[in-house]
Specification:
By secondary structure, the chain is an alpha+beta fold. The chain has a single domain (2-192), classed as Muramoyl-pentapeptide Carboxypeptidase, domain 2 (2-Layer Sandwich), CATH 3.30.1380. The protein is 24% helix and 15% strand. The protein has helices spanning 15-18, 51-66, 80-91, 99-102, 163-177; strands at residues 2-3, 6-7, 12-14, 23-24, 48-50, 69-75, 128-135, 182-183, 190-192. It has a five-stranded mixed sheet, with helices on one face. A two-stranded antiparallel ribbon has the order 1-2. Strand 1 and strand 2 (6-7) form a beta hairpin. The longest helix has 16 residues, at 51-66. The radius of gyration is 16 Å and the shape is globular.
């Protein structure tokens, strides 16, 4: 499928077409991310996912709506070129434009070694998604840390976050798990849909409709 010159990977869909009620706050398409600039591969702030993951996420959003909440997506399918850009960024010691906001207490040179930045990402299969929750009137719920903070406190079960944050993290995990998503324990926002062993990764750039 082609969208104005941009081709979706096989079996992928645009989340906006399947579940328009899900809020999209696609951080890597603009400067509001740990690199401080738009990331290669994100030509549009548009979430693409493998259809099975998108359908499951749509069902999660319906359940969240029933609890008076809205699902927010920060990232879905991630072209491999974006992950490659993250690795290059991590190796550039001089570039610290977003350090205070995203990695204040860790040496940038340690981000790859400590597992915060990887050379491969399950996001490139379209089966992983970064999400949060907000109220129906657009107020973000307290999760204890911002999305993409490189810090031990971002771990889902970290004990050093407040009561509200712990409750909201558990609430998010429970909602996502109802449709089979599993949480990455080091990041409260990161989930993937298991059961697709050998699913291919892609490097097609994300375009706009």
């Amino acid at each position: 499928m082609k969208i104005h010159g941009f081709r979706l990977p096989p079996g992928f869909v645009r989340l906006a077409e399947l579940a328009p009620a899900i809020v999209q706050d696609m951080r890597y398409a603009d400067t509001h991310n740990f690199t401080g600039r738009p990331v290669p591969g994100y030509a549009a702030a548009d979430c693409w996912l493998r259809e099975e993951a998108a359908q499951a996420l749509a069902r999660v959003a319906t359940k969240a709506d029933g609890e008076g909440l809205a699902l927010v997506v920060y990232d879905g399918y991630r072209p491999q070129r974006a992950t490659d850009a993250f690795v290059r960024w991590a190796a550039d010691a001089a570039d610290k434009i977003a350090k205070a906001a995203y990695y204040p207490d860790i040496d940038k040179a340690r981000l790859v070694a400590e597992g915060y930045i990887g050379v491969k990402s399950f996001h490139s299969t379209g089966l992983a998604v970064d999400v949060g929750l907000q109220s129906k009137d657009g107020r973000a719920l307290d999760f204890g840390t911002p999305f993409d903070l490189f810090d031990p406190r971002s771990a889902t079960a970290h004990p050093a976050v407040g009561t509200d944050a712990r409750i909201n993290r558990l609430r998010l995990v429970q909602l996502m798990s109802t449709e089979g998503f599993e949480n990455y324990p080091r990041e409260w926002w990161h989930f993937w849909l298991p059961g697709f062993a050998g699913a291919p990764a892609y490097d097609l750039p994300i375009g706009c409709p």
